[in-house]
Design goal:
The protein has 296 residues and is α+β, with helices and mostly antiparallel strands. It has one domain (6-280): 4-Layer Sandwich (Nitrilase/N-carbamoyl-D-aminoacid amidohydrolase), CATH 3.60.110. It has helices spanning 19-35, 70-82, 161-168, 188-210, 265-273, and strands at residues 6-12, 40-43, 85-95, 98-106, 112-117, 123-124, 127-128, 142-145, 148-152, 174-178, 182-183, 213-217, 220-223, 231-234, 238-240, 246-249, 256-262. The strands form four sheets. The chain has a six-stranded mixed sheet. Strands 8-9-10-12-15-16 form a six-stranded mixed sheet, with helices on one face. Strands 11-14-13 form a three-stranded antiparallel sheet, covered by helices on one side. β8 (142-145) and β9 form a beta hairpin. α1 (19-35) packs parallel to α2 and α3 runs parallel beside α4.
């Protein structure tokens, strides 16, 4: 079902060491977004906690909860009361010893429209996610909601054009990216601008290549749960249209409800004039599933 146009809201916040406080604050912002006419809200990646993946520490598994746990249940109630679609990022405990970085899509009637489990799991300095999460096994999906077909990918997924393409090919008109990305403070002066530019550019390119909207929701603030210099999250949540134009962009250092108007007619217009999907040579892509091609 498509209601056109709609409003989407990205909830960009800082996170404290108090999980309950983080959840309450984000829910407060979500309620404010609903009052301002938002039809879909999206939380940032792992919004209930600080970004604990800066170290490999077993104590952080206590933060995990099941899909039908208290965090998702709160947003199911919120969604039903406000007739709003919610995208909720959680640390999922699937079973004993099996954990995922998961996004739950709650429809406007409070039911779960679908879930997505992060497929690409990084293992970089201060982003030690492979210690906590196993790769998703549900594939790339488009979820039918009251306000249209939406896809969800998560943070590190945003660098992979294959993920965006496969999500768009299943009908997603908007691809949401709950995100937790920032600078190593010691590198910011030298590489900071280039890093944020690359991050924005790759996602805008997904909008252009697939003729869809992209909405990326990041956090802000300096977090040092593992000590040391920590990570300075760069915020700058944004929404781009099917032509790659920025419709709305948030601050690099302020908590914010970023609201953007989504006109689904732009998808038809853009794909008609730039028919990338029509002209794909699907008969020539069989080697894309190879890890590397050694031509001699």
């Amino acid at each position: 079902m498509n209601i056109n146009p709609i409003k989407i809201a990205l909830i960009q916040t800082s996170c404290s060491e108090d999980k309950d406080l983080n959840i309450k604050k984000t829910l407060m912002f979500a309620k404010e977004a609903a009052k301002n006419g938002a039809n879909i809200i999206c939380t940032q990646e792992l919004f209930a906690t600080q970004y604990f993946c800066q170290s490999e520490d077993y104590k952080y598994f206590q933060f995990a909860e099941e899909i039908d746990g208290p965090t998702v249940r709160q947003y199911q109630t919120f969604s039903k009361q406000n007739k709003i679609v919610s995208i909720i990022s959680i640390f999922e405990k699937r079973a004993r010893g099996l954990y995922h970085n998961t996004a739950v899509v709650v429809d406007a009637d409070g039911t779960i429209a679908g879930i997505y489990r992060k497929m690409h799991i990084p293992d970089d300095p201060l982003f030690y996610e492979k210690f906590y999460f196993i790769p998703g096994d549900l594939g790339y999906k488009s979820h039918n909601t009251k306000y249209g077909k939406i896809g969800v990918l998560i943070c590190w997924d945003q660098w992979y054009p294959e993920a965006a393409r496969l999500t768009a090919l299943q009908g997603a008109d908007i691809i949401f990216y709950p995100t937790a990305i920032g600078w190593h403070p010691s590198e910011k002066s030298q590489f900071g601008n280039d890093q944020t530019s690359a991050w924005e550019t790759i996602q805008r390119s997904h909008s252009i290549a697939n003729g869809c909207f992209v909405a990326s929701c990041n956090r802000i603030g300096l977090e040092t749960p593992a000590g040391g210099n920590g990570i300075e999250f760069w915020g700058q949540s944004f929404v781009s249209d099917p032509f790659g134009r920025i419709l709305a962009k948030a601050s690099p250092d302020k908590e914010q409800i970023l609201i953007a108007d989504i006109d689904f007619n732009l998808i038809d217009q853009t794909r008609t004039n730039w028919p990338f999907l029509r002209d794909r040579r699907i008969d020539s892509y069989e080697k894309i599933t190879s890890r590397w091609l050694d031509f001699k």
